[in-house]
Structure to design on (1342 residues):
């Protein structure tokens, strides 16, 4: 007898090669060589994930003559698959069915790779590979046998070990409680969802190939959830709702006060946010047509107070110095312990907090934007009631938060409102006539376009939202209505009736009618205070880093997504920078949660990065005050904006006789 | 400058020795040498656990001149300790306060060792060391600092790592929820209860040195709990109550039937047993004067159905072949997930099940009796509705269960009842007159003693309990009232009116009066069937092991504790053996739970032993039937009892004309 012949197989694109005996399947060969070829059903011809393309021809480069008939012919299992799931693309075979009978070059198409890359790339950083913490394994489990008293769970463990090399799987009682029924309902063929290669989180009585996870961003105002296919990385349903904690207080500090005043109030706040998130689970599951039980993992970002309240940790210490967190590291808990009804053994992973004021939301932004992967010195700003600021690059990262207050969200502004249809979000002021024109959310026309009144009849024009406030004050400065110090020039009342006196100060009338919308001196002051706090925080980080300019600026969060970055720079929220490198990142925190959902390694990565971030406590820095005072000016008393001035014509410096009352005095004198 | 002198220190009884610099404390020296010297407070002079005795004199053996003044003098910290906690024994010092200033021989008394040995010894096996899974650590935690945003938990982790080398402790949210308040209430000095060196299960705002655990035996009829001091091994409170599942069915199978007939019924049964156990936690805690929160760990044994129901696992599959367990290995779950209110992060450890009919209770017996540690071939029998039987020694262990039915518990017996005051538990029959005398539970007098009627007036004489049934039937055989085949000899009606005809069979009148107690032919048959099943199981194991006799027999469980082992052997429940080596072990299952509570290593040990046990399924063994038939005879048709015959005089073999009706026929002929 002679030895059976063996065949040379080369896989592309990896280039991995090896010799195998006659009759070995392409899938087996790929496994032995460590080629990234997917399979959920374990070679049973059910899942179709192991599709490969057999190359035709002579490959001198590989030294292989490859032909379609160098594998066994199309078989009945493939027929069954094609009938059920549709025909395979031309030249494709199921890798588990095609067996070697000659030398071969086999291409593994991208959709057959386990570790596909998510389409979205982090700018100039490495792309995210799909490699979630939970994977599905289809197994056939031995039936119980009177001669061998091994439990059902032990036989499942053995099946996973033998068929998938997944060893010593553990399971929570919630999963074990349904184990026997599921095994019998599936006639001992089941799909196991295994987390981190070690914990059974769900068991299905049939073949499954779709697994889902939920990425959640818990904001003070809204909670957003994105149901994500853990196989493709695709978001299959999104939903958001108001954070019901709002009934306990509009902003974070009033919610902390509620807890301080009402013993046990933290439990109400916790129940409220958990209930809302569980409702969202139901909503996105319904929308995507999947069961709650198909959701295997949840990742969460949020500011420190939301993060703690969701986890059931009392936030009271976060309400005052020294702002001690209960926990800072990434944290995993059973979803059911957090009131979420998903897969019985499913987990929630909360990203780490950076400091008492810099939360898991910022960690999400850092993971999403990846400044630690770049040489470019990047400034990340997430503006909310607190601005959370990160500065750095590959070699060093710094972070702080700065108390901007709610002015950017339209609070404390006489005509301010939340971003909603009818709110003014864009403003232009004519440099000569000082006449404004504006756009409102929900309408693409400017206020001086024909048809604007009709188009906005339904919503009305109701107020000015955060991004509108930024633009109007920047435009007021560019039009010479306010000085560099932020004083409304009362003398302009002579040129336009839009400048109106209010006691000792003046205001600018944006819109006459119902409601009447004017920007008062107090409104300007509120924005100045907010933007000065933000800028002073940025400057502290730049000082600490030892730089006088940054190379890239990314604005994160809802506010950051809506403002025009040029106006933000005109007003001096952010330092000078090439405007081509200033951008909004949208909900970068939520993207960070999605990355943590799709890529297991990213969890250790962000945990590690966060530990390395140097935290600056703005309240303790003596330089803060000076930076703050300089930043009260528009754009800044000290700092130049050469890049900005290439694009925007700054007004002539204007000095009034006396800061606050100058206008009025002059008017009195003139009058 | 010369080097500071160093001193030779020898610790007894370990003999460990080393040289240390001047001023090093005895505790530090002990730690460096790995001497087993306890400390909970970490050398702060609070706990008094590190007490040592400084030896006086010249120790040629060690080459040391040791004197009391070779350590620093008694100090203020020791004064404070003695004032608060009482004076130290003569010559004792706190090891953390006494610092070296000369050579020394130091004795570590047993009560200062961490790994004290529990007094109770496993016969001829190694004794159990106290080394529980949970230990207490007193730590001082850094206060929060604005310059360092480390969370409270991270600072606690660091304190445990620095002060106790306990690294990377984890904590459940239930523990973390109270963390900040506890740290502040304790002014940053707290006692941490850490499980397996890695998980924080409780945190106390003060110095604690007592930790408690609960060993639980969940029986079908009763649940027993023993609150145990994890430091001393002492049981500080015990309590038991009826298993409230009894309202769903008296025996195991009727409870499984309840679940089969009532979908969701398993949840009722689970809630019922968990509620009862949680009540017991409260009861033992109250009795011992400790808080529920001071109970750090629970260990549980029980038969497979109780084990599964307590864990919330549906027992239906255990109700019929192939008797598939959901899980068989040891299992840990959070106490709160099992409805038990103990320390917030406390765990329950359930011992492993051996097979579908051989449960964690038997694993407890095996752990307690340790047959796997001996050369002696030991037979362990735990008699209940099922007899659970283990045979083996160091080299091999076998187990099976045998369906004895409830006869041994007094069920199916016309005059049977549960063991309770008023139940007959001891019986003697005069060989000549065939007159009986008996004792009842709750009274030390025999029924023919003066004063018996008065002494039992309160309880009455109400029936015969399990151990009474064994004795009466054994005595009936010894007195010649029944044949080896178990037939009541009707011809004896001629000699005594206590033999009465009932239709075609006869009965023996044990007691005339109210109630009238008689042993019927059916009663004898029921006991024969039960004991034959038990003995046949034993024989199967002996066959499999390849032996014809055993060297030691231990009876476990409530029934095993009460029966007279000699009568058990006379009746042929157990095989022949030197009676000096046959004993009751009391609640050995519960003892196993207590061992698992006190000694961490025992958990891996029993897990490992159970995996090695060979399980025999009696129903599948062809030889069972033959063994069973032989064992219907008293004591046995085939097997000899030479050891027993040294002590007990067997009656002359008696053969009636025809098995069941012989007596009656003969009487008819005679009459």
């Amino acid at each position: 007898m002679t030895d059976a012949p063996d065949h040379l197989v080369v896989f592309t694109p990896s280039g991995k090669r090896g010799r195998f005996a006659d009759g070995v399947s392409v899938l087996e060969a790929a496994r032995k060589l460590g080629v990234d070829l997917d399979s959920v059903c374990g070679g049973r011809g059910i899942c179709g994930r192991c599709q490969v393309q057999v190359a035709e021809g002579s490959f001198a480069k590989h030294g292989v003559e490859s032909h379609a008939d160098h594998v066994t012919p199309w078989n009945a299992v493939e027929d069954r698959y094609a009938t059920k799931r549709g025909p395979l693309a031309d030249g494709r075979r199921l890798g588990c069915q095609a067996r070697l009978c000659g030398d071969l070059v086999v291409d593994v198409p991208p959709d057959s790779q386990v570790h596909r890359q998510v389409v979205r790339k982090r700018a100039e950083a490495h792309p995210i590979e799909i490699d979630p913490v939970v994977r599905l394994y289809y197994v056939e489990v031995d039936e119980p046998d009177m001669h061998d008293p091994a439990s059902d769970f032990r036989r499942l463990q053995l099946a996973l070990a033998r068929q998938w090399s997944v060893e010593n799987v553990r399971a929570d009682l919630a999963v074990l409680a349904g184990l026997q029924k599921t095994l019998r309902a599936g006639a001992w063929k089941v799909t196991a969802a295994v987390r981190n290669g070690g914990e059974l989180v769900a068991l299905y009585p049939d073949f499954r190939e779709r697994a889902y996870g939920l990425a959640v961003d818990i904001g003070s105002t809204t909670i957003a959830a994105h149901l994500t296919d853990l196989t493709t990385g695709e978001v299959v349903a999104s939903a958001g709702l108001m954070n019901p904690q709002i009934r306990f207080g509009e902003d974070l500090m009033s919610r902390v006060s509620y807890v301080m005043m009402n013993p046990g109030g933290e439990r109400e706040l916790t129940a409220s946010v958990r209930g809302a998130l569980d409702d969202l689970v139901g909503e996105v599951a319904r929308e995507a047509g999947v069961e709650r039980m198909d959701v295997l993992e949840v990742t969460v970002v949020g500011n420190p107070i939301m993060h703690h309240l969701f986890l059931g940790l009392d936030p009271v210490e976060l309400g005052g110095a020294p702002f001690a967190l209960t926990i800072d590291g990434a944290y995993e808990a059973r979803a059911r312990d957090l009131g979420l009804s998903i897969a019985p053994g499913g987990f929630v992973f909360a990203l780490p907090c950076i400091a008492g004021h810099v939360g898991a939301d910022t960690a999400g932004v850092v993971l999403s934007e990846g400044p630690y992967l770049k040489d470019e010195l990047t400034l990340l700003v997430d503006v909310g009631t607190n601005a959370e600021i990160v500065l750095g690059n590959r070699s060093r990262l710094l972070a702080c938060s700065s108390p901007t207050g709610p002015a950017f969200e339209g609070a404390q502004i006489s005509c301010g409102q939340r971003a909603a249809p009818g709110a003014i979000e864009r403003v232009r002021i004519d440099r000569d006539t000082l006449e404004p024109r504006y756009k409102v959310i929900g309408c693409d026309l400017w206020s001086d376009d024909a048809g604007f009144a009709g188009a906005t009849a339904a919503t009305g024009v109701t107020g000015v939202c955060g991004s509108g406030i930024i633009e109007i004050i920047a435009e007021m400065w560019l039009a010479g209505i306010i000085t560099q110090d932020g004083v409304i020039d009362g003398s302009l009342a002579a040129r336009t009736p839009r400048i109106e006196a209010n006691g000792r100060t003046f205001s600018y009338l944006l819109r006459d009618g119902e409601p009447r919308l004017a920007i008062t001196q107090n409104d300007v002051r509120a924005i100045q205070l907010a933007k000065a706090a933000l800028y002073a925080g940025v400057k502290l980080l730049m000082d600490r880093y030892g730089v006088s300019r940054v190379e890239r600026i990314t604005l994160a969060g809802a506010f950051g997504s809506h403002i025009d970055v040029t106006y933000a720079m005109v007003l001096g929220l952010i330092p000078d920078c090439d405007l081509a490198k200033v951008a909004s990142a949208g909900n970068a925190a939520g993207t960070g949660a999605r990355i943590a959902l799709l890529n297991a390694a990213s969890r250790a990565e962000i945990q590690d990065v966060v530990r390395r971030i140097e935290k600056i406590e703005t309240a303790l820095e003596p330089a803060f005050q000076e930076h703050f005072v300089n930043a009260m000016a528009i754009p800044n008393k000290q700092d130049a904006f050469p890049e900005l001035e290439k694009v925007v014509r700054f007004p002539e410096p204007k000095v009034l006789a006396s800061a606050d009352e100058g206008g009025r005095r002059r008017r009195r004198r003139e009058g």
In short: Confidence is low (pLDDT under 50) at residues 117-126, 659-671 of chain B. Chain B touches chain A at residues 144-154, 172-173, 176-177, 179-181, 311-314, 316-317, 321-329, 333, 337, 353-356, 358, 615, 617, 619-620 (CB under 8 Å). Chain B has five domains: 6-112, 134-204, 212-350, 363-406+527-645, 412-523.
